[in-house]
Design brief:
Distance between the termini of chain A: 16 Å
Largest sheet of chain A: 5 strands, mixed
CATH class of the largest domain in chain A: Alpha Beta
Number of domains of chain A: 2
Number of strands of chain A: 10
Oligomer: homodimer
Strand order of the largest sheet of chain A: 3-2-1-4-5
Radius of gyration of chain A: 19 Å
Strand content of chain A: 15-25%
Order of helices and strands of chain A: EEEHEHEHEEEHHHEHHHEH
CATH topology of the largest domain in chain A: Nucleotidyltransferase, domain 5
Shape of chain A: globular
C-alpha cells in the first residue's frame, strides 16, 4: 500500500490539515479556527488519527525555534498572539504518533510547496512567499533551498518609511510600534480604521496606504534577495485592488533602476498570488513529511 | 610549477590587484585610484602581464550584469559613477589574456573571500559583507553559496525611515533621492556636511545620524536574511566610533524581539570588520580564478 502523509499549516487565524499520498493528491482536508493551543492542536491530532500515517509535516506561525539542537526546538517563541507564546508544537504530536515528524514555519512550508509543486513556480530557485494577515512573514527559497540562517526570516518587523503627517497611526507591534507588521498587518488595518479589512470597500483610502507600506517593504526584499518572483498570500491580500496598486508603486519606487524584463515587462507575473491557492502551506508540510520519510528509510 | 592567479577588486574609489599561488599566498599586490575606465583597467592589465597567469578573477563595483547568457555579461550597468555606466569590464582582459576569466560584483568577491579564507568567518553558511563607501552594496552567502537571483543584491537602494525634521538633507541618489545610499554613502555625508567623511571628527553629529541610517538598514537585512554574521567594510567604516554606535542602535531597534545569543551576547562579533582586512575582495577574486581553472580542467 502507498505511504500516507499528514500535513498541517497552522496560521494565526486558521489551521488547515490534509492527508495525501506520495503524489501529493489530497485525500482529505479540514480547516478550523485558531483558538487555544490545546483545542487547536487537539483538532489536528484527532483528524490525523483517522489515518495510518507514515510521516507528518507540521508548520505553524512564528516566530518558531528551528534549531534542532535547542531545548525549545519546535516551540513558538516571542509571538504577540495571546496564549501561544512559549507553546511546544511538536510534543503533543510525538506523544500520539510514532512516525517521523517534520517541523517548520508556516511561510517556509508555503514557499516550499510552491517551489516543489506549483507548475508556474517550480523552476525558480529564488522565490519569496509573503503572507499578509494576522502577522506578516516571509518564507524564502534562496539558491534552491529554504533560507535558514540564525533562524527563519522575520520580514514583518522590517523598518519602512512612515509619514506620520499622512498616517498618524502609531502602529500596533508590541515590540516595534510602527514596523511593517505594526502598520500593515490585518490587525493594524482593523485598529487604524476600526473596521475589519474584509469589510473595507475597495475604494477606501486604507488600500492606498496599505499598498504604500507593502510596496516599500517589497522593494527592500527585492533589493536584498533579487528574487525571481514574489508570491503574496494571507487574508489581507483578498482585497483585489491591492495587487495592481502594489505593482504600480513598486515600479514608481524603483524608478527604472532595475531593468530586468521580469520587473519592467512582466510585473503581473513577478508580484503574484499563490500558484497553489490556499493549499501552498499544507502542501509544503506534506512535502516535508515525505522528504523526512525518504531520508529516514 | 604551481598555478598562478590574478585577482582584481575594482571599487568606486580604488582598485586593488594581486597575484597568488593556489594557497592564496599573495606574491605581489598593487593599488591605484579609480579614474577613467581605459586608464584604470589599463593599469590592471599592465600589472597582470608581468606574470604567467593561469586564470584571472575580476570583481568590480556595480551594478553589473552577471547573466552569462546576456550580451552585456561583464558590463557595469546603471551606475551613477560618471564615465563608468555601460562599460565592458571583461573584454579588455580577454583581448590580452588567453586564460579563464571569472567575473563578479566587488562585494560578492569580498563575501566569498571571507567565507572561504577568513579563519573566523569560514564556517558561517549565512554571511553578509556590506561596503559603505562611494556606494553601499552587499554580497551575501546564503545556505553556503553566493546569493544570485535575477541578479546581485542592491541593498544600497533600500528605503529606510528618514526623519526630515531631524535631517532635512534630501539625499543624493539620482534614482531614489533618500534611499540608504542617498542618505548614508560617503558622497552623501560629504554633500550633507560639506566635509569629507575622513576629515569629520569622531564627535561630529554626522556619526550619530549615520549610525541611525545604517542600523535601520542592518536590522532590515537581519530580519530578511537571518545571517550568522554581518561584516562591514568600505571607507566610511574607518571612523572607529561607528561600530559601537551601530551595535547599540541595532539592539535598541530590535528591542529584544530576536533573542539569539549571537545578537544578545555577542554583538561585537556579530557586527564586525573584515577578517581579511582590506584584502577580502581581491582574495575572493583569486578564489574565483582558482575555482574556474579547477572547473575547466
Amino acid at each position: 500500500m502507498d505511504d500516507l502523509f499528514g500535513g498541517m499549516e497552522g496560521g494565526g487565524t486558521k489551521f488547515i490539515c490534509a492527508i495525501s499520498d506520495g503524489t501529493f493528491h489530497l485525500l482529505d482536508k479540514i480547516q478550523f479556527s485558531t483558538t487555544t493551543p490545546d483545542e487547536t492542536l487537539g483538532h489536528a491530532i484527532t483528524f490525523f488519527k483517522k489515518y495510518p500515517l507514515n510521516a507528518i509535516g507540521l508548520s505553524v506561525f512564528g516566530p518558531v525555534d528551528l534549531n534542532d539542537s535547542s531545548r525549545k526546538f519546535g516551540y513558538i517563541t516571542t509571538t504577540p498572539k495571546r496564549g501561544w507564546s512559549g507553546i511546544d508544537i511538536i510534543s503533543p504530536f510525538k506523544q500520539e504518533f510514532n512516525v517521523p515528524i517534520a517541523f517548520t514555519l508556516d511561510v517556509n512550508a508555503a514557499v516550499l510547496g510552491e517551489y516543489v509543486l506549483s507548475p508556474i513556480n517550480n523552476r525558480l530557485k529564488n522565490l519569496v512567499y509573503i503572507t499578509i494577515g494576522t502577522g506578516i512573514g516571509a518564507g524564502i527559497i534562496s539558491n534552491g533551498t529554504v533560507l535558514s540562517g540564525l533562524s527563519h526570516p522575520e520580514v514583518g518587523h522590517m523598518r519602512i518609511p512612515h509619514d506620520k503627517q499622512l498616517d498618524p497611526f502609531p502602529g500596533i507591534c508590541p515590540y516595534h510600534g510602527n514596523c511593517l507588521e505594526g502598520l500593515a498587518s490585518g490587525p493594524a488595518i482593523h485598529s487604524r480604521w476600526n473596521i475589519l479589512p474584509s469589510e473595507l470597500p475597495g475604494d477606501h483610502p486604507a488600500w492606498d496606504l496599505e499598498s504604500d507600506y507593502l510596496a516599500s517593504a517589497l522593494i527592500n526584499i527585492i533589493l536584498t534577495l533579487s528574487p525571481q518572483r514574489i508570491i503574496l498570500g494571507g487574508g489581507v491580500m483578498n482585497q483585489d485592488k491591492l495587487f495592481p496598486l502594489i505593482r504600480k508603486k513598486i515600479k514608481l519606487l524603483l524608478n527604472k533602476y532595475l531593468l530586468f524584463p521580469e520587473i519592467v515587462k512582466k510585473m503581473d507575473e513577478y508580484i503574484t498570488n499563490p500558484g497553489l491557492g490556499t493549499n501552498s502551506g499544507v502542501l509544503g508540510a506534506l512535502v516535508m513529511a515525505k522528504h523526512l520519510l525518504t531520508k529516514n528509510e
